[in-house]
Design a protein that fits this description.
By secondary structure, this protein is an alpha/beta fold. It has 23 helices and 21 strands.
Length: 647
């Protein structure tokens, strides 16, 4: 029987029903209500009238009701998503009709000494009409929810008790989501409240800790999540300790006709680390990038591909995607074809070490702006392959920068790294060498503005720690952390690339722009949070192991070298690094010799020359940072893990 009903009803409630049909049904409801009102009035006055009446008075009342339907457009909404607002709309339509008929009744009585229907009958009509309109929408909504229920709903709290949180709770309760059943609100002030919201209790986090939580999930708005993070609040950590899964509503500006409360997204570690939204000077950037041919190297990588996407809104004339990786470049091209079909772009296979091939690119496409993101970035791998790191990170950058000068490129934006500050590894030292060469060109009298941007780790980028931890957690552990005290700066990919674009429009050339990365994050804490987000307990369900620092790896990353200071810019998250070791012409010889040795694949001489060029480069011995069971930091981590096990 249920299957038969599903086949009949589901097409009606699952698809968009034309408005004319809803209007027709509403008119029929008004007709039925008018019939009932006339029958009841006639019965009460003792008139022997038939059950159904087809008088002009009845059709006049129905006509007035239909007129208000059209004026207020009460039939425009999707019935299956009816809310309290729609109830008010139906009440307004019915009330206007009742008032209008009462007025006409008085006019008709004064002129003809009779009424369309007794005034009591008008009130009865209004009551029946509103009840039927309301009942019709409730039935359709409940039927739709019942037929489309795919899984048992999960009990959930709403985080917060302000007006926006209450509205969010009202929406979830009104929709009667098949995914979540709201069982209460959580007050962030830790102040017990005796009142109730929507007849649901209000809890404090302390109360949830003291008693067994009746829900396994908690829902937070994007705005509330941002407020909590901006205040450096420990609320999220406390909620994770309670083994509550955190779900986030999309931003208000991202709502559309298909947005549903049942499709809430589970919060990710990137959401916890994302900071306040970045405000870009879109007017200035548009004038800078609009109708320009822009070359992006490393375009298939996580940074390069995001730069390409961030450039699209500024309507460039053409974007040249250059990378040596065939398959990733093909993948990003498919993505652009799907998401940005209007974009004019070229995808080119080329290696930045091949200057002859790069010259062909510059000659053919005549780019005006270059974003150079191509690089080898994995520290341990570059320690084992130093000449390759020098060849790509230094020589490749030099090739592009020299061609940019030769072809009079307007702006050259070099994407560097925090590992270039007091480098302890080959990768960082090669990036610092490239920075010095960029500064050398900036000192010369040429038409190209050279800009260097420097930031830390990017969340979710290829080879970064978060995808690595996710894979380890999915495989059941252990999650491997190199050292209990290791910290890193993090940014999201979109945040980093937006700042790169903003920095690209700043300065007169030669500046090294440093991004505000916030506070450094302990990697072991990151691992704990990621395990907690999956509903598991660190060192009980998923083990955390310390593997020791890898070759060339620092315990702490820096964004500024020793004795460096920063100058503010018009953007609060971008500063200018003022290096004390300013570039001088004596380094030209060192740069030239380094290039010669790299071209010869002479590893020993290349490394000697690199150390002369970058004197702050001091390789570290990872044996100095070996992790032992007697290490007090390990004991501290272990004691924390015992608490996890008890929980």
């Amino acid at each position: 029987m249920k299957l038969h009903l599903l086949k009949i009803v589901q097409p009606l409630v699952k698809n968009y029903v034309p408005r004319k049909y809803i209007f027709f049904i509403d008119v029929c409801i008004a007709f039925i209500a008018a019939q009932a009102a006339f029958f009841l009035v006639n019965s009460a006055t003792g008139e022997n009238s038939p059950m159904f009446t087809f008088t002009w008075q009845l059709f006049a009342i129905v006509g007035i009701q239909a007129l208000y339907y059209m004026l207020i457009k009460s039939y425009f909404g999707l019935v299956r998503y009816s809310s309290f607002k729609d109830v008010i709309t139906q009440l307004k339509v019915t009330a206007l009709c009742v008032v209008s008929v009462l007025v006409l009744n008085q006019i008709y009585y004064l002129t003809r000494s009779e009424k369309l229907i007794l005034d009591a009958g008008v009130i009865i009509y209004g009551f029946i009409t509103f009840s039927l309109l309301f009942f019709f929408r409730v039935v359709i909504k409940r039927t739709y929810q019942s037929l489309n229920a795919t899984k048992k709903s999960s009990s959930a709290y709403i985080l917060g008790t302000n007006r926006a949180d209450i509205a969010m709770g009202e929406g979830l309760i009104s929709e009667n989501s098949d995914s979540f059943k709201i069982v209460g609100f959580v007050n962030l002030d830790d102040q017990k409240m005796l009142t109730r919201i929507h007849n649901l209790p209000i809890y404090t986090i302390a109360q949830l800790k003291e008693s067994n939580s009746i829900a396994k999930s908690i829902i937070v708005s994007d705005e509330k999540l941002q407020q909590i993070k901006d205040k450096n609040n420990s609320v999220l950590a406390e909620l994770l300790d309670l083994k509550l899964k955190i779900y986030k509503l999309p931003k208000i500006e991202n709502y559309d006709s298909t947005t549903s409360f049942s499709s809430l997204k589970e919060i990710k570690i990137e959401d916890l680390l994302q900071r306040s939204p970045i405000k870009l000077n879109n007017l200035k950037l548009s004038s800078l990038y609009k109708d320009k041919t822009i070359l992006v190297t490393g375009a298939a990588g996580s940074i390069g591909s995001e730069i390409v996407k961030q450039l699209v809104p500024f309507a460039p004339k053409k974007i040249i995607l250059l990378d040596q990786a065939e398959t990733p470049l093909h993948d990003i091209a498919l993505c652009l074809d799907k998401d940005y079909p209007q974009l004019n772009y070229e995808k080119l296979i080329a290696n930045v070490r091949n200057k002859k091939r790069l010259r062909e690119v510059f000659t053919t496409y005549q780019p005006q702006i270059v974003f150079h993101g191509a690089a080898y970035k994995h520290v341990p791998m570059m320690e084992a392959n130093p000449i390759e790191s020098l060849s790509v990170n230094f020589r490749g950058t030099r090739n592009l920068a020299e061609l940019s000068t030769e072809y009079k490129i307007e702006r050259f934006v070099f994407v560097s790294t925090d590992k270039a500050v007091n480098p302890t590894n080959i990768m960082g030292a090669t990036k610092r060498a490239a920075e010095i060469f960029i500064q050398s060109l900036a000192k010369q009298d040429n038409q190209t503005t050279f800009i260097t941007t420097r930031f830390g780790n990017v969340l979710g980028s290829n080879g970064s720690v978060i995808p690595h931890f996710k894979k380890q957690i999915q495989e059941g552990g252990p999650v491997t952390v190199t050292h209990p005290e290791i910290t890193r700066y993090f940014m999201t990919i979109d945040e980093a690339c937006q700042l790169v674009l903003e920095a690209g429009g700043m300065g007169n050339g030669g500046e090294i722009y440093v991004f505000d990365m916030g506070s450094p994050i302990k990697i072991v804490n990151l691992a704990h949070h990621m395990i907690r987000l999956t509903g598991l307990i660190p060192n009980k369900d998923i083990a955390i192991e310390f593997s020791g620092l890898r070759p060339g790896e620092k315990l702490f990353e820096e964004l500024l070298a020793d004795k460096e200071t920063t100058l503010p810019t018009h953007h609060e998250k971008i500063m200018i690094a003022q290096a004390t070791h300013t570039y001088d012409s004596s380094q030209d010889f060192q740069l030239t010799k380094l290039l010669e040795f790299v071209k010869q694949n002479n590893i020993n001489e290349s490394l000697k020359q690199l150390k002369q060029l970058v004197p702050e480069y001091q390789p570290i011995d990872v044996n100095d940072f070996k992790v032992s069971e007697s290490d007090p930091n390990i004991q501290k981590i272990a004691s924390y893990s015992e608490v996890d096990k008890k929980n």
